[in-house]
Design a protein that fits this description.
The complex is a heterodimer of chains A (118) and B (253).
Chain A lengths: L2 H18 L2 E12 L6 H11 L9 E7 L1 E5 L5 E4 L14 E5 L3 E10 L4
Parallel strand pairs in A: 1-2
Antiparallel strand pairs in A: 1-6, 3-4, 3-5
Helix pairs in contact in A: 1-2
Chain B lengths: L23 E3 L6 E9 L2 H16 L3 E6 L6 H8 L7 E5 L7 H7 L3 E4 L10 H8 L9 E5 L16 E7 L6 H4 L1 H5 L3 E5 L11 H11 L4 E4 L5 H13 L11
Parallel strand pairs in B: 3-6, 3-7, 4-5, 4-6, 7-8, 8-9
Antiparallel strand pairs in B: 1-2
Helix pairs in contact in B: 1-4
The chains are: A alpha+beta (118), B alpha/beta (253).
The complex binds guanosine-5'-diphosphate, magnesium ion and zinc ion (ZN) (3 copies).
């Protein structure tokens, strides 16, 4: 259940961005999860819903984009989006490929409300 | 500057300016809401600490290996026996909580080891390893092993500041584990199929395991190991020797 430590790192980042931008509230957190990043999206969501309650993300919705594996073949130069968890080129069956996406977990975007100027 | 050791190794909170476009643009419909584009690795803090750990190891010309597997695959046993097969001087940062006596087992064999108190953590992170490495005498070491928590899932997400990952899969666990835990095996630099003396008693297909691994990680090497077969242990020692970090010119030998 390392999803709990991942979520606490995520919320900490959100809090830093909120402070830096004088935000009073974060309303949406957009993240991108690679299918090969090693996190389970449903567990991450549960962890977020639990941990957000005592901080600036209290009312935030978590929007997750699942990023499939994207590879580029070094032999036939074809770029492919893969459904299965393998890095073999579906076009020519080469093992000489480079993973372009699908292994990271990234915070992409935050929607926040700032101090009312009244 | 490292507070624990008073060392002058910096923690580079690395420059994100290239991928960190802070375009703060006001949403026209809602005057008081702002959207901030970030693009930030979620485990960024851990990664900075991991880089700091690597700097520690490298300052002492140490190569660090992260040992990962399910509980009971033979990580501690391998470290206990390796001593008989290599002249390389190694120490162990012990993080496996399944057997709290792991560090004692190693110390009993004359191997320097420090046990991390992981509590109920299901993986080690770079901060835990940093705390531990200040308990080890790093001087004169060639290798530092980190024995991670027995778990094929969580440890795969955390860079702990080692140079290479060694993943163990024991024969009784079955050859399907590579397919079931692709993230872990994708990140391996070496896969050890352990307890190979038990191959006659289990339906473990080594060729199938190799084929599965190749689909995820074609450059990884596989070694078949048994602590009861000295030659296989010599192969592990040889791999370690050839995979030591290359000393850069100008660094003290
Ligand atoms: N038959 C056999 N048993 C082994 C071998 N390596 C380890 N074991 C046994 O596997 C059990 C678990 O090993 P241990 O090193 O504690 O696993 P760890 O949890 O990965 O550190 C112990 O009872 C070991 O004696 C091996 O090569 N062959
Ligand atoms: Mg152990
Ligand atoms: Zn976990
Ligand atoms: Zn191809
Ligand atoms: Zn330090």
């Amino acid at each position: 259940m390392h999803e709990y430590s991942i979520v606490s790192a995520l919320i900490e980042q959100c809090e830093q961005h909120a402070r830096a931008n004088q935000a009073t509230k974060i309303t949406r957190v957009d993240i991108k999860l690679g299918v090969m990043s090693g996190v389970e999206p449903t567990l991450l969501e549960t962890a977020f819903e639990t941990f957000k309650l005592d901080g600036i993300c209290r009312e935030a919705t978590l929007c997750m984009t699942l990023q499939p594996l994207v590879i580029k073949c070094l032999d036939c130069h074809q770029e492919s989006v893969l459904a299965e968890r393998s890095i073999v080129c579906p076009a020519c069956n080469s093992y000489r490929t480079q993973v372009l996406d699908g292994e990271d977990m990234l915070l992409m975007q935050l929607e926040m409300e700032q101090e009312d100027e009244r | 500057m490292c507070k624990d050791c008073g060392c002058s190794l910096p923690r580079h909170s690395h420059d994100h300016s290239h991928l960190h476009h802070q375009e703060l643009h006001t949403n026209p419909q809602l005057n008081d809401k702002k959207t901030l584009s970030v693009i930030h690795k979620i485990l960024d803090k851990n990664d900075v600490e991991a880089a700091h750990n690597r700097a520690h190891f490298e300052a002492h010309n140490i190569t660090a290996f992260n040992l990962m597997s399910s509980p009971g695959s033979g990580k501690t046993t391998l470290l206990e026996h390796l001593k008989e097969y290599t002249k390389l001087n190694y120490a162990v940062i012990e993080g496996d909580l399944e057997t709290s006596r792991d560090a004692d087992r190693l110390i009993a064999k004359g191997i320097t080891a420090h046990q991390i108190q992981t509590g109920s953590a299901c993986h080690l992170d770079a901060f835990m390893v940093h705390g531990a490495l200040h308990h080890l005498p790093l001087e004169g070491l060639d290798i530092c092993f980190v024995e991670n928590v027995g778990n094929l899932v969580c440890p795969a997400s955390y860079d702990v500041g080692t140079h290479k990952n060694i993943v163990l899969l024991s024969v009784p666990e079955g050859d399907d584990k590579i397919e079931k835990y692709p993230v872990m095996f994708r990140r391996a630099d070496l896969v050890l199929i352990t307890k190979c003396d038990l191959l006659p008693y289990f339906d473990f297909d080594v060729e199938e395991a190799k084929a599965q691994l190749k689909k995820l990680n074609p450059d990884t090497q596989i070694l078949e190991v048994s602590i009861k077969q000295g030659e296989s242990m010599q192969a592990v020692a040889a791999w370690l020797k050839t995979n030591l970090r290359q000393t850069t010119v100008g660094e003290p030998q």
